[in-house]
Amino acid sequence: DLSKQLRDVETLQTATHQALAALAAAVASGAVDKVEAWLQALAKLHPLVEYSEAVAAAKACALLAVGKPHKASAACKLGYTAPPSLAKAPWRLWLLTQAQYQLGDMQAALKWATRLASVLQQEVASAGWQSEYEQEAEAFGGNSVHALAGAGLQLPSQEEAALNWADQLANIVQKVGSPGWQSEYEQEAEAFGGNSVQALAGAGLQLPSREEVGCVVSHLTALSALKEEGNAAVKDGNLRLAVDKYSAALALLPPPGYAAVLHCNRAAAHQGLDSLVDALADCGRAKALDPGYARGTTRMASVLL
What PANTHER family does this protein map onto (predicted)? Predict the structure, then answer.
């Protein structure tokens, strides 16, 4: 009967909240095996759990925290038929940016960061306008304000918004907090796991500001450009310039996987300049940063021969 169904729903909600809390504790402890165990426990709670935006955000955050960007990226993807705008969820774009960055794929990271910047710019430019993502997310887990709170994501206060994003964003934050106001994403998320503000709060996720995303985009653009300029210099035979370009990219402190590629590329340029000691040193750095990077080993072999 209806009362039993309601009790079942309440029981599932309680179990899900307990599992999310245990997952957060496992992440804080740094115990990868415990994190994976609680992720499996979440998946086994009920088939409908996979439709929760809150759970998806928590899973992706946990996987990123324990150094599993491949799995985090997969957790961000929609594994079911859903309104296209759910793919534009700010939390999803932000975590995909981080996952691809950790994997060393600057082009993919730049793609997601650019999309996030566009979404945030839309929100600022159209205060009070309900975005497509927000409207559709209501059917997929609840009002985005509540969902983000549940995942650990915090929107700025009205005062912070006024300082950081000017009066337009302050107006957005004020309307989000008004009873009865629901954006497009928030309306559609209702059937998919709860209000997104609550979801992100539960996952311990902090979304960046529009300005911070802009800085991320600039950083990723610079990394990609410097690497490509170095590659072009190698093709043109300007090896000294190539060394300078790769060195400039490394000075931006890229993630280990990408840094390994840059060191390997710089090793090739040093080798062409007969700077074999420098070439060998760069090969060693590449192997240390990414032991599974085969080119680091083959480049070292070519230098030694």
Answer: HEAT SHOCK PROTEIN DNAJ WITH TETRATRICOPEPTIDE REPEAT-CONTAINING PROTEIN (PTHR45181:SF4)
3-class secondary structure, 66: coil
Query: For the ranges 11-20, 163-172, 223-232, 263-272, which has the lowest average pLDDT?
Result: 163-172
- Give how far Cα 34 sits from Cα of 24, 53, 74, 182, Å: 10, 22, 19, 37
Amino acid at 36: E
Tokens of 224: 């990609």
8 Å CB contact between 71 and 63: yes
Domain topology for 213-304? 1.25.40
User: Per the structure block, which two tokens stand in for 258?
Assistant: 């990408």
User: Taking CA 147 as the corner, what is the angle to CA 142 and CA 149, rounded to the nearest 5 degrees?
Assistant: 150
C-alpha 149/C-alpha 195 separation (Å) is 8
Q: Give the number of other CB atoms < 10 A from CB of residue 77.
A: 11
Angle at Cα 134 formed by Cα 132 and Cα 136, nearest 5°? 70
Q: Is 183 exposed, middle or buried (0-12, 13-18, 19+ CB in 10 A)?
A: buried
* Percentage above 70 pLDDT, the chain: 73
Q: Cβ(194)–Cβ(141) under 8 Å? A: yes
Residue 284 to residue 100: CA distance in whole angstroms: 24
Q: Is the pLDDT of residue 148 over 80?
A: no
Beta bridge partners of 281: none
| Whole-angstrom distance, CA of residue 33 vs CA of residue 200 | 23
* Calpha distance 36→62 (Å, rounded): 9
**197 beta partners:** 147
First-last CA distance in the chain = 78
d(C-alpha 246, C-alpha 227), whole Å? 6
Q: What is the pLDDT of residue 243?
A: 97
Outline where DSSP puts E strands in 23-121.
none
For 155, the token pair is 């929107």
Domain coordinates in residue numbering, the chain = 2-207, 213-304
